[in-house]
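Why do we bother with a discrete structure alphabet at all? Because it lets us treat a fold like text: something you can write down, compare, and reason about line by line. To make this less abstract, here is a complete entry for Protein FAR1-RELATED SEQUENCE. Read it the way you would read a sentence in a foreign language you are learning: slowly, and without expecting to understand everything at once.
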Amino acid sequence: MFKSLGIICRHIIVVLKNKGCNKIPSQYVLHRWTKMATRQLSYEANGHMLKGTSTCLSPTIKKLFLETCSKFSLALHAAKYCEGKMRYFHKAVGDAFTQLG
């Protein structure tokens, strides 16, 4: 049944259920989709371990953290094909980092 590699779409779940498949092979499940993704240590870009993971945060901060990560990712993808947009995004992130530092 599983002849190719890649990321499955959400629609395939219905097809698999209709075919009697109750378990998705692990090569099709991204780590970030698993419960273990929030239980691992997080590191900064320079390799230093962060002091706490998102599981140590209050519910309000955790919600803001996750929403911010999502917005960051969407903005990065929106900018990636245009040098001007990418430069703007790079500067905005740098400015934000400076303000928070």
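What the structure line is telling us, in plain words: The mean pLDDT is 76. Residues 7 and 66 are 22 Å apart (CA to CA).
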